[in-house]
Amino acid sequence: MQIRDQLKVQDQVLNRTRTQLKTQEQAQARTRDQQKVQEQLLTRTRDQLKIQDQLQTQVRDQLKAQDQTRTQARDQLQAQDQIHAQTLEQLKAQEQVQTQTLDQLKTQDQIQTKTRDQLKTQEQVELKTRDQLKAL
Question: How many angstroms separate the Cα of 74 from the Cα of each of 56, 59, 68, 87, 92?
Answer without folding.
Answer: 10, 8, 12, 20, 27
